[in-house]
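Sequence only, no structure available. Ideas?
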Amino acid sequence: MCQRKFNSKKMITQHMEYHKNHGPIKCQYCEKIFHFESMLNKHIKCAHSKETTSKFKCRVCERYFKSLKEKWDHEWNIHNVRKAIVDCLVCDSRFRKYSELKKHCNEEHEILIPPKKFLHWKMKDPALKC
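Reply:
I predicted one. Tokens follow.
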């Protein structure tokens, strides 16, 4: 319960009834507890202005980013999160996109690899090293 003080028994009773009917509210950003929605809203406005203006949340550490690209770059660079596995089999470099792998193999290893639509992912062809 809160530490508020009251001048009358009626006000204490009303206040106790409020706490009985309204459970504590947890901040969605830092999990602090508030007993009044108005106090929670004030807290969010003061303490979490970046989170409320940034819409893209990291799936690992829950940091917020203003653009989807910033979020993807963060997840890739900090947490090594990626949807597709596109590793170079020659030097173990890692790429987010097949097009980046293709460019890398051509420039670094002078190996041409077929367009993605012609590549059979399950087939292990020794001629295709990237």
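Confidence is low (pLDDT under 50) at residues 122-130.
Hope that gets you unstuck.
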